[in-house]
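Quick look at the format.
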Amino acid sequence: MNDAKEMKKNYKTIDLVYIALGVVLIAICSWISIPTTVPFTMQTFAVFFVLSILGGKRGSVAIIVYVLLGAVGVPVFAQFTSGIGILFGNTGGYIVGFIFMGLLYWLIVHFLGKKLWVEILAMVIGLAACYSFGTVWFMIVYAQANGAVNLAMVLAWCVIPFIIPDLIKLGLALILVRRLSPVLKLQ
């Protein structure tokens, strides 16, 4: 009986360690900026990777902790920024959208199983939800500060330049997870 309690306690401790490592990975990848015409970070790569390697539950918790840490002032967002002002800014909806990515991934994989095609589907649907939430958020916040902006313009600024890079990051994350999973044995 005592051994069972000890195993359960250790399992929770291990979960917390995995979640913390996921948060750190997302933060580090958010600081990696790839300069192009429209610069982008490796943040979405980390979100995809963390969800796939840790699973929906631990991955979603890692994403939520990451967003909360940034909200309270820990500089985990792109360019070492943080604060509630970043989340309530023009692009804050895309950061909050990561939570939807995690929850949708968790839900879809829970019901359909963790097969490669299911993971890809879950991540693509999650990414679409993130884009959708972030775009609506951007339009509302931008309109309050600068006046109305049309959807086509916001998509051209905030979504279209990121679709191909994000799909590449999705593929890289899944390839890396497939290579590391047998060694790490996290699942």
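Next, a different chain entirely:
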Amino acid sequence: MMQRMACFEKIAAARDGAIVVATYTSAFEWHRVDPNPLNFVSVGAMGQASSHALGLAIGLSDQKIIVLDGDGSLLMNLSTLTTIANTAPKNLVHFVVENGTYEANGGHPTPAQGKTDLAGMARAAGYAEAHSYEGLNQFAVDLPGLLAAPGPTFAALKVEAGDAPPLNYDYDWLHSADRRQEFRDAVQPLLKD
């Protein structure tokens, strides 16, 4: 099993200007690893990070879009797998942090904890590639290929459930007009004329 922060550090090092959509606990930890104007925080509608990422992938088809989803969030919107696969955005990489808990909501276990093959579900839905990782070394070796492959690409990152990081739901950091403007300003140069 891996540590989420260690996985995120590897992704941050390989990010190369990608837009990153992160949800709940992943969003808070991602912000600690790589605060960046191209981070889109998807908090407030559990399960919607992959849908937000899909919209960005369609609208910015030349821009790599990375989604940092949680297994609990994905389970709340499983139809996103078939929607993404059907749309087939080549620029979307969907990482799911799989720790078997609804960590942001008290650490309650997810249904079928340890029994569900999320990568297998993504593969069956029609993702171009779907993988599962338990070891950081193999993940680090494969990461450049995951980011370069024509997507949609899926990777379940099996991580240890731990103590949730401080969850700062401060309105200004997550949802302020300044934060939204910062993201718009960062995305504007990426738009086609």
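The two ends are 45 Å apart (CA to CA).

See the schema section for token definitions.
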